[in-house]
Write the structure tokens for this entry.
Amino acid sequence: MSDVERDAEAGWAPRSAGWRRWAYWGARFGPRAFVRWSPPLIGLGFGMALPRARRQVLRNLRRIHGRRDEFSELKDMAATFGAFAACLAESLAAERAEGRAARYRVVGAERYEALRERGEGVLLATAHVGPWDAAAQGLRGTRQEPILLVMGQEQDAAAGTFHDLVRRTAGLEVRRVGAHPLDALPVLEWLQAGKVAAVQMDRAPKEGAIVVDLLGAPFPLPKGPFALASVAQVALLPVFASRRGFFDYRIDVGHPIRLPRRADREQVEGAAGAFAAQMGAFLRSNATQWFHFTDDALAADLDLDE
């Protein structure tokens, strides 16, 4: 039985289509005060009900901070689940007036603009951090150009389809990959046409991962984005979003990473290490906005558990 199935039996299935629709209606049509103040309490409830996710969050925090006193760890675990609920609510509420008037502060925008001024395609490399959809929205706002979100298949396909509709309403394109080896071909064509795509880097398949050092411990990254950047001859640009307040976001644009067209293993591993270094720097300042909830087999083998 999968984690999702076990969670569903307990009445808590945050990745299910039914729950996603319920969350959408509350976020889209609920009173402003509800959308602003209820997510931390809802997130805390999920954290209490989902022991596997709670264990992984603790591993993440220990990867970043090391072991600390119990109060500090519990406080940051609660803050992480609260931040996740707030980011999800605001993602689903993009059609609200507050969503359309969201504030974006882009730090390092000149690095993105320099690539676009040259007409180059760009592969934005992010992670399950903060309001990650907002990273695409904030950069899109500088030029009002289409950005393609490249995402893996959700465990509940109906939930993914529903959320993708919300994203498209907000002006973002979505491409799901992973079901077939040729799924990424349209993404390659998109990049080669000089357009922008975004991909999350902190959820690698069991096969074909690159193990890097992330904050002093091994972590798997997917090979696919590096292969795409190499073949398409576009820059892989680290971009991370953090939530600073109600529909108030900061987007940190990192330094572009480039690979030759026929990159060898050493060059790919070097690029992966460069990305991990930039991701680690972001996480040190935003530890409670890393929503990497899936079991990390590598972390499980380390001294990061209770």
